[in-house]
Write a structure and sequence with these properties.
Layout (H helix, E strand, L loop, with lengths): L14 H9 L5 H5 L5 E4 L14 E14 L8 E7 L5 E7 L13 E10 L6 E4 L2 E4 L15 E4 L8 H14 L9 H7 L4 H9 L7 H5 L4 H27 L9 H10 L6 H14 L6 E6 L5 H14 L3 E5 L3 H15 L6 E4 L5 H13 L4 E4 L13 E6 L7 H8 L6 E6 L5 H8 L3 E5 L10 E6 L3 H13 L3 E5 L7 H19 L5 E4 L5 H12 L5 E4 L12 E6 L7 H8 L10 E6 L4 H12 L3 H12 L24 H16 L4 H14 L1 H4 L6
Parallel strand pairs: 4-6, 9-14, 9-15, 10-12, 10-13, 11-12, 13-14, 16-21, 17-19, 17-20, 18-19, 20-21
Antiparallel strand pairs: 1-8, 2-3, 2-5, 3-4, 5-6, 5-7
Length: 698
């Protein structure tokens, strides 16, 4: 048996179990061995029942003598009690609340291993365990019974009906029959970092030695775990380093930074750029004037002026005779960009086109013809730009906005429409450094860390929902002063329909009962593109004073006269999203406010709201969001490109990630031999490329 053996060939894995394991992404022996326990239990303390002491954690091997269910059987509220005895003939009572499901499991005569805290019943004087973990030890399992008791026991996340006990048995059988295998991790690195070899690490990760430190195991810092975490990060970072190395060898477009280009940029600028904008443009211009294709990530907090920098880069491309594509995740943002670029480029005489999914077939056909002919130098669009029949005459610069809303493959699809075009990736979601290394390690990074002059920090307040009338009074004062406001509702349980209904209901309430004297608009995802555009246009012109909306206004909406953002049910939002929404105000000279209206808060909710009230710093907020929600939910969807890490955790293992990154860069830049580098590339292609999207590695 080797690492690529399908799990269906492992004893104990039939079609049913194979399907359950596959649902977890476990198809091969390698997949299962990489499925690390999430915690470990100390079951070394096996005692006969008569030696048990109240208060201790212990393992008992005993037989079920009797069992009964008391209480409300129909409502599953009963207490299930089982009496156990061992060779000492002493008894122990196991108790489980809501335990009706155990009636058909713990039947008299069964031999079981019980693990839990020993308690003394003050009324009867009997020893008992409340909700002990148990494992049935049947006769045919005697050979493997030692896996489950009398040692430090690994605990796995179940896969359907494949329990943690089954996982132990399967992994044990695999390790028993696994052929000796070469260690892919370079020997020099293993020796320098004192890492165990792969086979030893796998055995000890799943079945720790009797003298292992339980605290190290449960903090994922045992030597075996450390080696496996390091290896996972090492191959990921090697793949990214190889992509960077390959990009450095490619020949792209060498744009000329002529006096004409500089004059056009100066002519286009609506105001004097900030020092940060100038610095970032210089970095982009340097990339564009080199022979290698630009691959740059532009980060900037909401309102920092990223789009203006992107427009300056577009001028460089257009003046060199190339086309520019700007990819946006939503129609609202694409339309916003269209009008923004159109306004800027009207001074330069550049034609500009918009391509979205909601356009009519006739409109799409017309725009596609213009793109193919090269008559339109700048094209703004949504996913519609990625369709196969969209052909550019000479695409020179691809700009991807809000990159985390797109996958890696979508970025590549846009790039494939040109001959190695320069790529500028933008995001207004500040990304903590460790996450940026993992997501965008193949990109150079620029950060706009300065807001335009005259911007005042947004004042953020928290108001419980039972005091919402105070919010309405404040809204009235702001609107009476000639300003405008947003009232936003969350997408509940990923349902745009529910959010739309909530917004429609509140729109009726606010427009008829609370603010009948004002124009109250409504915006949600189910409106047509024309309807959305009409509502936003009226809001921009000041014809609508209060805009009730779902989160479709999260990015890209810029109305300087809007000074109040009310976020209803704010506890349902992540920090990054709250910060994005807040960034829709504070774009003019007037003081702006964000009011977070919440229901009852749990601890995490309170922490989120407190962070928003105390900080306007996007990077600080992103760090907190990462800590609170974890890396898996930071962006919310797998589309984000977040790697499917199996053992490593970029939040918990930051220092391991840093070390692996440094080792990977050193290995790729100065390999011990050409043969060693070839083996690494081959290994990544075979084992890791698909998992991490490390396309075109090596």
């Amino acid at each position: 048996m080797d690492l690529v053996t399908p799990l269906t060939y492992v004893k104990g894995v039939g079609p049913q179990r194979a399907a359950m394991l596959e649902a977890k992404g476990l198809k091969t022996v390698e997949d299962l061995l990489s499925y690390a326990p999430f915690r470990y239990e100390d079951r070394r303390n096996i005692k006969p029942i008569h030696e048990l002491a109240p208060g201790e954690m212990a393992t008992v091997i005993a037989e079920v003598r009797s069992a009964r269910l008391s209480g409300f059987k129909r409502r599953n509220l009963g207490m299930f009690e089982a009496v156990f005895s061992d060779q000492s003939r002493s008894t122990l009572i196991g108790k489980w609340f809501h335990g009706s499901y155990l009636q058909d499991v713990l039947i008299p005569g069964l031999r079981v291993a019980l693990y839990g805290k020993v308690e003394l019943d003050s009324y009867t004087g009997s020893l008992s365990m409340l909700h002990p973990e148990f494992e049935i030890l049947s006769a045919e399992d005697d050979e493997e019974a030692a896996l489950h008791v009398g040692r430090i026991v690994p605990v796995y996340e179940a896969a359907g009906k494949v329990t943690t006990r089954v996982f132990r048995s399967l992994v044990y059988r695999i390790l028993q029959s696994l052929e000796p295998m070469p260690d892919p991790l370079p020997a020099e690195i293993r020796a320098r970092l004192n890492l165990p070899d792969l086979q030893t690490a796998l055995v000890h990760m799943h079945f720790p030695a009797p003298d292992e430190d339980l605290r190290l195991l449960n903090s994922f810092r045992s030597p075996a775990q450390y080696r496996m975490i390091f290896e996972e990060f090492f191959w990921l970072e090697c793949g990214l380093a190889l992509k960077r190395a390959k990009a450095r060898l490619e020949t792209g477009i060498k744009f000329e930074l002529t006096d004409k280009v500089r004059e056009q940029i100066k002519k286009m600028l609506p105001f004097k750029p900030t020092a940060a904008q100038k610095r970032v443009l210089a970095e982009i211009a340097r990339d564009m004037s080199s022979e290698r294709p630009m691959n740059r990530l532009l980060q900037g907090d909401v309102g920092s002026g990223k789009t203006l920098v992107a427009a300056e880069a577009a001028v460089i491309a257009v003046e060199n005779g190339y086309q520019v594509a700007v990819l946006a995740p939503t129609e609202i943002l694409a339309t916003q960009h269209f009008f923004y670029f159109k306004n800027l480029f009207s001074r330069l005489g550049y034609p500009i086109a918009l391509l979205t999914g909601s356009a009519t077939q006739r409109e799409k056909t017309q725009v596609k013809k213009l793109i193919a002919s090269g008559l339109v130098p700048v094209v703004i669009g949504t996913h519609a730009l990625l369709e196969e029949d969209v052909e550019f005459r000479n695409l020179g610069l691809a700009i991807v906005d809000e990159q985390h809303r797109f996958g890696v493959m979508q970025r590549l699809r846009l790039m494939s429409k040109g001959n190695r075009p320069d790529v500028l990736v933008m995001t207004a979601t500040p990304i903590p450094r460790t996450l940026a290394l993992t997501l965008y390690g193949d990109l150079d990074t620029s950060v706009i860390d300065e807001l335009p002059p005259g911007r005042k920090p947004i004042i953020t307040k928290h108001v419980p929902e039972d005091r919402v009338e105070q919010v309405y009074s404040f809204l009235k004062r702001e609107v009476d002063a000639g300003r405008q406001a947003y009232v936003v509702y969350p997408v509940i349980e990923e349902s745009e329909t529910q959010a739309m209904k909530a917004a429609e209901k509140m729109h009726r309430h606010l427009s008829t009962e609370v603010f009948p004297q004002y124009q109250v608009g409504l915006l949600h995802g189910r409106l047509s593109a024309e309807e959305k555009e009409s509502v936003m246009d009226r809001f921009k012109k000041g014809e609508i004073q209060i805009l009730v909306s779902t989160t479709v206004i999260e990015v890209g909406v810029d109305v300087p006269n809007a000074t109040v953002m009310v976020i209803e049910q704010a506890e349902r939002f992540g920090l990054a999203q709250l910060h994005q929404l807040r960034g829709r105000v504070g774009r003019g000279a007037e003081q702006s406010y964000c009011i977070l209206v919440t229901g009852k808060l749990n601890d995490a909710g309170r922490e989120r709201i407190r962070t928003m009230v105390e900080s306007n710093d996007g990077f600080q907020i992103a760090e907190m969001d990462l800590r609170l929600r974890g890396p898996g939910e930071f962006f919310g969807t797998r589309q984000s490109g977040l790697p499917a890490l199996r053992i490593g955790n970029i939040l918990r293992d930051q220092e391991v990630l840093e070390m692996a990154r440094n080792e990977a860069i050193a290995f790729v830049d100065n390999p011990p031999s050409e043969e060693a580098l070839k083996r690494a590339v081959q290994f990544i292609r075979m084992h890791w490329q698909r998992r991490y999207g490390l396309v075109q590695v090596g």
